[in-house]
Structure formats: C-alpha cells, structure tokens
Amino acid sequence: MFANLQTEIADRYGIHFNDVALLEEALTQANYINEHPNYTGHDYQRLEFLGDAVMQQSTAVYLFKRYPDWDEGRLTELRIMMVQTRSFAALSRELHLDKYVQLGRGEELSGARMRDSLLEDLWEAFIGALYLDQGQQAVMDFLEQTLFAKVDSGFFQQFVDYKSKLQEFLQKNGAVKIVYETLDEVAEENNTQIFTASVSLNGDELARGTGHSIKEAEKAAARIAFEALQK
C-alpha cells in the first residue's frame, strides 16, 4: 500500500522517502495498532506534534522572505490564515492521505477516513515524517508546490471566519447591532441557487455578498465589509 503512495508522491512532487517506516507511521492511527497486537510500529501522534512546529516555522520563514516590506502584524495575520488546520484537510485530500491511512475497524465504519479533524492531523504528521527523513529544505520544496503555491489563489479565504472577524472589529469600542439579511434567491440554469445577503451596522448597510447558500452569502458580505473597513 505504501509503495503506491511512494510512487504517487515521487511522480507528483519528486519526493522519495529514504525511511518508508516514517511514512507508514505518519499514516497509522492508534486504533489500528490496538486492533493489531503484532503491529510493531507507532501511531502518527508524535509526528503530528513535530509537523505542527515545522509548519509554523516553515510558513514564517517563507512569509518573512517573500514580503520584506510587511510589518509583524501583516505577516502574523497571513501566517495564521495559512496554518489554520482546516486548510490541512484539503491538502491531505490532494495528497491522497485519506486513501492510505491505516484505521481501526470502528473508525473505518464511522467514516473517519473522510473526517477533517483526522486529515488535518495526517498532514502535520506527514510534514513531520518528511522533515525527519530529508530535512528542512525538502519540506520547503514540498510546501512551495502545495501550500505556498496557493497564497495568490484565494484558497485560504474559504477558511477564514469573516463574520467573527467583522463582529470583533465592529464591537471593539462597545456593543453594536449587526444584522444579516437574505435579499434575493435566484435559480441558475444548472438548478443551483444563488443567494444574496447583506450585513448592516445599526441599521446602515455595510456590504452585500453572494453564495450558493445563505451561509456563504453572509460570509461573503462579511468579508467585503471587513476588507472595506480595513482600508
């Protein structure tokens, strides 16, 4: 099984693990080991711990070099956006870690293979394994092809809670009334729905946004309002 993953990541990213046992450890859940008494390997949790630290450092170095004119606040904000774990689940799926993880029978039946929280952990464990196997530069080269390549694409915006950010910004000087309202619902040719929502502050409209659900439309309105207020 792991030979197939080795071939995949070699073909896509030019990565060849020297110690395949590290790769297997990064993709083995504790419940799998509990159900296989003769299994001699370890689960991914220690590698996850290491990978978390490596991700933080690698992203900080990348941003520091890429944006030499940015102050600490802007660098920190983008770093937090990039290393929030919700994005790691999407990256795990791109790497097909969901396909190769070794799960216990109960976890398999409960749908853990599709669970974002597990996939987030697997991404960090994979990074930890790669760091131990090949060092920091190999991690940076891999992240250049995956995580860092998405900086300019808007990929990370989907994981930002703009409604909370807007609320925090508007209420920094005291309580205010923030209201979201659904204004329109239109059916497209493919039968999908497009919703339009607005966000208002004390009765004054701040922005409007659209999305394929009311939640998406409200989030879009919050993002537009927040970015406009920041300017």
UniProtKB/TrEMBL annotation:
Coiled-coil regions listed: none
GO biological process: mRNA processing; regulation of gene expression; rRNA processing; tRNA processing
Keyword field contains Iron-sulfur: no
Keyword Ribonucleoprotein among UniProt keywords: no
One Pfam family cited in the UniProt record for this chain: Ribonucleas_3_3
EC number: 3.1.26.3
Cellular localization per UniProt: Cytoplasm
Catalytic residues identified in the record: 52, 124
Residue ranges crossing the lipid bilayer per the database entry: none
Endpoints of the signal sequence: none
Subunit structure: Homodimer.
PANTHER family per record: RIBONUCLEASE 3, RIBONUCLEASE III
Record's protein name: Ribonuclease 3
UniProt source species: Weissella soli
Gene: rnc
